[in-house]
Design a protein that fits this description.
The protein has seven helices and nine strands. By secondary structure, it is α+β, with helices and mostly antiparallel strands. The structure holds acetyl coenzyme *A. The site of acetyl coenzyme *A has 23 residues, from helix 2, strand 5, helix 5, strand 6 and helix 6. Acetyl coenzyme *A binds next to helix 2, strand 5, helix 5, strand 6 and helix 6.
Length: 220
Amino acid sequence: MVPPVPVAAGGRHPGWPARLGRLRVAAGVVELRKPRLTDAAVWSRTRLADRRHLESWEPTAPGTWEERNSALSWPGQWSTLRALARRGMSLPFVITVDGRFAGQITVGNVVRGSLCSAWVGYWVASGTTSGGVATAAVALVVDHCFTLGGLHRLEATVRPENLPSLRVLEKLGFRQEGVFQRYLDVDGAWRDHLCFALTTEDVPNGLVSRLLTAGRAHID
Ligand code: ACO
């Protein structure tokens, strides 16, 4: 039986809170930080403008896109992310590029005990894509989770149609492990997802070093 995760004083758990970066990629300098209540306006503005870019890949949820992504809905989402992080169940990060809000990357469903596993999910604003941002963010998060975060395995599930996301995982050397049929309710229907994973044994020197060696990122 997996022992329950204790709620630590001050919301501290392995690897949380954390600030990660700074990796220079083609798009700029990528850093990861905690979400802030004050992200409401930029978060909402970005997501409302990027509906076509994001909606096909995100879990179906109640309400319209406008309702779910209004600045008024951010405090509730921020508070949920913070509560899950304080309970050791998630590591939620905002991605910044050159100090500006550029997306989110979240490690979720953290299970410890003899599993020590979680999933990772991400989005990057359309104005900043194809510049290596998501690849750098995933590398930073994986290395953090496999060291200070104390995790052994990270999974990423992706719709087969999501070519940019598949490319991110390919560049990082994630292993495809199979197909999860009708896995997740995305954009109004149950969608098949390809399952990718890494364990610590796959990346003894970390993913950031892999990116640096490949010339895909530089320490700023
Ligand atoms: N077909 C094939 N490759 C493509 C395409 C395409 N249509 N469009 C872009 N690419 C490539 C890019 O050229 C780049 O590869 P390269 O470095 O070899 O040139 C790669 O895909 C993207 O790599 P990054 O630049 O590191 O990623 P980016 O910062 O652009 O973010 C992301 C990728 C997160 C998928 C972004 O497009 C996005 O937010 N999409 C909408 C939301 C989404 O799909 N999130 C992921 C869901 S799955 C998950 O979370 C596990």
